[in-house]
Amino acid sequence: MPHEPLPTFFLSHGGGPWPWLKESMPGTFDQLECSLASIPRELGMIPKGILVITAHWIERGFVVSGNACPSMIYDFSGFPEHTYHVKYSAPGAPDLANEIKTCLHDAGFNVRVDFERGFDHGTYTLLVPMFPEAQVPVVQLSIDRKFDSETHLKVGQALVEFREKGILILGSGLSFHNLATFGPEAAAPSRAFDQWLQESLALAPTERWRRLCSWSLAPAARKAHPREDHLIPLMVAVGAAWDEEARVIYHEDDFMGHWCVSSFRFGKP
Predict the structure, then answer these.
(1) For the chain, which residues make up each domain, given as ranges?
(2) What is the pLDDT of residue 106?
């Protein structure tokens, strides 16, 4: 029985293993955590599965994770020792991974399944506050290393059928991601790009698509994203929603030292 299509999301996933740093950095992640925890309440249901398009998995072409019991990938450095032992024990979903592979292959994309891949921090940092009981099966999708916006928008279009199957599609990245720019220097470019992004996502579908395909022309674009890996998951979330309305569900002007960051929902809750 088809579901009412679930909305899709582009979520700014914070910094490092932040759900396990709240005691040492009190208050820093409160707004982000609150916004993520509210998503299941918005949905009004537990999804049958979650598909995370993660900025922290870059491949030639597209790869879907099909590990039934994913391990943890501690793809960060310089954090306290205990953060390299944290666990998020959600199951994988090999059958769903194969369905996604078939869907993308039929749409003309180069795609394979990786049955060894574990969860990277672009995935579990989001899901810990969203689904702390780790009860929902999770599949990850890589981004293609060419970082072509239109390709990823079209991948999203191909995945739209999964929304009606009760699969929650999450693009995981950051709306501003320049690790060389913190403090007051980050304020102006991050605000300029965030304003452009909010304006662009509010446009009609064809114009929204056009703007995203030429995002590098946006104000402060390359200051916001010297390398666009953390922006590209947005394209998949937008493509899977096509003509549906965008809403800001999280916004901070001074995250991690003056960064302006946002998260978005596409479609009705």
Answers:
(1) 8-266
(2) 97
For residue 114, give the 3-state DSSP assignment. Answer: strand
Instruction: Please give the Cα distance from 183 to 255 (Å, whole number).
Output: 10
Q: What percent of the chain is helix, strand and coil (3-state, nearest 5)?
A: 40, 20, 40
Residues in CB range of 217: below 8 A, 6 or more apart: none
Q: What is the pTM of this model?
A: 0.96
- The CATH architecture one would assign to domain 8-266 is 3-Layer(aba) Sandwich (3.40)
* Cα–Cα distance, 262 to 255 (Å, whole number): 10
The Cα 247–Cα 180 span in angstroms is 29
Question: 3-class secondary structure for 40-78?
Answer: HHHHCCCCCEEEEEEEEEEECCEEEECCCCCCECCCCCC
* Bridge partner residues of 167 (DSSP): 49
Place of tokens 């039934």: 68
Mean pLDDT of the chain: 94
**What are the C-alpha distances in Å from 16 to residues 122, 153, 162?**
9, 27, 29
Say how many CA atoms lie within 13 Å of 183 toward its Cβ. Answer: 2
Nearest to 245 by CA among 208, 192, 211: 208
